[in-house]
Amino acid sequence: MPRRLSFDIFCRVIDNFGDIGVCWRLSRQLALTHDVRLWVDDLHSFARIEPAVSSGAAQQTIERVRVLHWVAHMPLPEPQQVVIEAFACDPPADFIQKMALAGTLWINLEYLSAEPWVESFHALPSPQASGVRKAFFFPGFTPGTGGLLREDGLTAERDAWQTNPQARAELLRDLRVASTSIASVDTGALLIMLFCYANAPATQLLSALQASGREALVLVPAGVCPGLARGRHGQIDVQEIPFVSQHDFDRLLWSCDLNCVRGEDSLVRALWAGKPLLWHIYPQDDEAHLHKLDAWLACSPFSGMVQQAIRHWNDGNIACFAPAMSQALQGNGWNAWKTQSARWSDKLASQPDLASSLVDFCLKYSVKAK
Ligand code: TRH
Questions:
Q1: Most buried of the four, 19, 152, 177, 334, by CB within 10 Å?
Q2: Residues 6+ positions from 104 with CB-CB distance below 8 Å
């Protein structure tokens, strides 16, 4: 039996859904074996990706995770053995004092990056004036990092899903996609997820699809790409779909032929789908995000043409995006992209997953037994 640990996970929603998206996946996975308390300051955002969440509840238990609404001046319980602050979100000062007395291990779970320096910073201690033992934990794409979130049995579930077109059709029906559109996908139209930030050159994506001569159904989650007209654009059909749970979001990505994803969590989930993807990276000051993007492209197996398309999807060079993209969608370019995506997914899935690495790390740091 693996040793049972206890975790507090602190999540502050800065914007969008990635902060809570990552924390919720990690919480659920750890809660299968361990005791997990998740502190979240914004239950409304949480409820968008997890319909079981009641946004008015101070405390609730969902999938074995005790969810606390994190507000100022709330009563603070005794800390668990391990406190994870996601993305440097600062647990309350009074709680940190309690952690010092309790001998808690404090982990700063960092943002995902493929930059080479990550390996040398992963798992380093971060000495604290309070005396609490603290360490950095970096997700990443190589075995020298903390890895990527991946649930046990995920790839087997994905494989079973991808060999069952009926499951895809049912999911699309549940999302109120027109039956004629579902039929077109069944007969070969490309199914595309479009989840990106507002400045993505989405119109140029449609031009690239038109130039490739392929029929396509583009699914756009509610509120995404508000400037892109829904409806028919030549042989391309753009349909809005409601936000779904993370569980269904994964299955949507497994169902699509091309996943346009963004931020951090949906990128990882698109990698697990094993299909071609366009990543719209979260924008940062001084174009730091483009360095992160280049580092990720450098570790990807994608051809120069696909790398160019992904680079220009992000860097505002709209004129160069559409030609690279339309080439990437055709013939050998497209077939190679599909094969490389599936192989990269398998390769990444052969490495330890983030939750298991984190638990191993905590045990090695000899967490105080309760
Ligand atoms: O929402 P994001 O843009 O989040 C971003 C990034 O994480 C970024 O790195 C961070 O700095 C910023 O937030 C604050 O993209 P991301 O990371 O892909 O998160 C989206 C989450 O929403 C992911 O967990 C999937 C989930 N989701 C659903 O569950 N259902 C849906 O229908 C959709 C569209 C998304």
A1: 19
A2: 79, 80, 81, 82, 83, 98, 132, 133, 368
